[in-house]
Amino acid sequence: MVIGGGAVTVRDGSNAVLATFHYDHDAQEAIAYLQALFGPANETGSAGGYESPPATYYDWGGFRLTDQSIGGSDPYWPDFYLQVTVESLDGVHIEAVGGPAIGWPTTKVESMFPDDVAHLSSGTPGIETSWVRVDPVPAAPIAGTDTTGWNLAVAVISDASDSVTKLWAPLANYGV
Fold first, then answer.
1. pTM for the model
2. Is the peptide bond before 170 cis (omega within 30 degrees of 0)?
3. Cα separations (Å) of 150 from 2, 13, 66, 71, 174?
4. Percent of the chain with pLDDT over 70
């Protein structure tokens, strides 16, 4: 499975594409496919909050799909996003475009994408996290809004362990 900035793609052992799911399309098709692939998900919900819409979480032990209940305009708010904390699930290898996967050394990922590295506070004094944006995909235009430079990407996140601990997609950069 390859997680990209605009979509997640499932491939077979010979690298042939079995399915592709775009984040700005309805999540139900992706959810059905993943349930067929990984089995029933642990399903929970959230009423949302100040900066988060209502959502349903589908968890498969280290692989989470969040189906957002958004009435806004696509693709400004993707219909779903992924957070992954496992290298593989039920024999399916999971990686970001270009190869980064859970457990990779932070220095390797940062050297592959040197222009897209940010070191952020972890909230614990003296400990930073590394965020590397991989596979930026231009955001679709929105009528009446200058979207120059806006994009969606995969965040390859490392914590104090100096190895990749999470893949998160899509991660928006809306010019902020």
1. 0.90
2. yes
3. 22, 34, 22, 21, 5
4. 92
Cα–Cα distance, 26 to 33 (Å, whole number)? 13
Q: Check residue 80 and give its pLDDT.
A: 93
Residue 146 in tokens = 């200058």
The tokens for 129 are 């996290």
Rounded Cα distance between 113 and 108, Å, is 9
CB proximity list for 70: less than 8 A, separation 6 or greater: 53, 77, 79
Identify the CA nearest to 11 among candidates 98, 82, 89, 94.
94
User: In angstroms, what CA-CA distances link 95 with 63, 104, 168?
Assistant: 12, 10, 11
Residue 126: its pLDDT value, please? 66
